[in-house]
Backbone:
């Protein structure tokens, strides 16, 4: 976010009063001062040096030189800036919605290629914006709470997706001072439920998949899984605090990838009543994460609220989570179904940065 630069008017000075500066608009950022924002870029606002006076009058040559220097600086464009938040060692933990998994643009700098971390995932954006000295990204597609303390074999596709991701907690140290964690979706089987709910037949010919999640006692089995996962999330937070007692811990929830009040069959070939059921369970999962974060000494980061209206039923450029068609325009190319695209990752990063006051 770039604020208005301070401007000042000049008028010729009378010999008995010297050079005067006419008051400009309300005071803006000073030269070299970084403007905080919630996106990937802030700017340092340049300001022209004050014109010099000769014999009580503005020297036109010096004034012209000052204006040319200021113009050249502005034409060069704003320089990317980092926020000085005091964090030095940042570790990102989580599953595919934190890795912001991709088919193209996989980054194996911090984890095996099988984790499918994207080069633009929100942890990398946050690390770049904060300018931390040390950054470790443990996020990995398919991870559950169990992979916090156990290695994860990600050798899904030979020569393409391979490797073993060490236990994610292995990246934590006593000096880690910032941790983000986004986990829980795979523990309840949410992604598998979405794929299992694909229905080639429209209503009333198709059978709703939600009936398969009705327990004998009438209780929703997915809701039961969410409740059972709460203790695992509590264990994850306790493990983070034990290994990194100085760390600020952020629990990042899941984007509003599925609306809780509408479907869009056949654009997304899941019956409308099933898609809204999935949307309701997604909200329920996020509510559990918020409660667990509060009780576990962590800060809850709500990416859901700001992403409402950007679900899988929206058109390209508006949706932040891709549908079941394995193609995306953000960025263009193959995509992982039912996962955030680049726009979604940008929103996640902006929301995390906002939570950190950056």
Residues:
């Amino acid at each position: 976010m770039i604020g208005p630069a301070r401007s000042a008017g000049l008028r010729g000075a009378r010999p008995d009063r010297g050079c005067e500066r006419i008051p400009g608009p309300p005071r803006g950022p000073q030269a070299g001062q970084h403007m905080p924002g919630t996106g990937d870029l802030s700017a340092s606002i340049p300001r022209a040096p004050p014109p010099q006076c000769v014999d009580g009058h503005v020297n036109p040559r010096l004034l012209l030189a000052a204006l040319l220097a200021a113009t050249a600086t502005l034409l060069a464009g704003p320089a990317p800036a980092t926020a000085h938040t005091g964090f030095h060692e940042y570790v990102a933990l989580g599953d595919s919605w934190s890795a912001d998994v991709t088919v193209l643009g996989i980054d194996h700098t911090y984890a095996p290629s099988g984790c499918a971390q994207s080069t633009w995932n929100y942890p990398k954006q946050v690390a770049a914006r904060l300018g931390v000295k040390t950054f470790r990204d443990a996020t990995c597609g398919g991870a559950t709470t169990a992979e916090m303390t156990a290695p994860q074999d990600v050798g899904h596709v030979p020569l393409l997706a391979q490797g073993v991701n060490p236990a994610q907690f292995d990246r934590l140290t006593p000096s880690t001072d910032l941790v983000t964690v986004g986990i829980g979706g795979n523990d309840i089987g949410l992604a598998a439920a979405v794929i299992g709910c694909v229905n080639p037949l429209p209503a009333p010919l198709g059978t709703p998949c939600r009936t398969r999640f009705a327990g004998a006692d009438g209780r929703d089995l997915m809701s039961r899984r969410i409740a059972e996962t709460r203790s695992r999330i509590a264990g994850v937070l306790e493990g983070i605090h034990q290994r990194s007692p100085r760390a600020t811990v952020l629990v990042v929830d899941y984007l509003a990838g599925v609306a809780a009040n509408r479907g869009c069959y056949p654009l997304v070939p899941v019956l409308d009543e099933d898609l809204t059921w999935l949307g309701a369970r997604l909200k329920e999962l996020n509510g559990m994460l918020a409660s667990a974060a509060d009780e576990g000494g962590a800060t809850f980061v709500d990416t859901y609220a700001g992403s409402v209206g950007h679900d899988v039923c929206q058109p390209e450029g508006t949706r932040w989570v891709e549908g079941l068609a394995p193609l995306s325009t953000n960025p263009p190319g193959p995509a992982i179904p039912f996962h955030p695209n680049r726009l979604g990752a940008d929103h996640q990063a902006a929301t995390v940065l906002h939570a950190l006051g950056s």
Notes: Residues 1-80 have pLDDT under 50 and may be disordered. The first helix runs from residue 60 to 75.
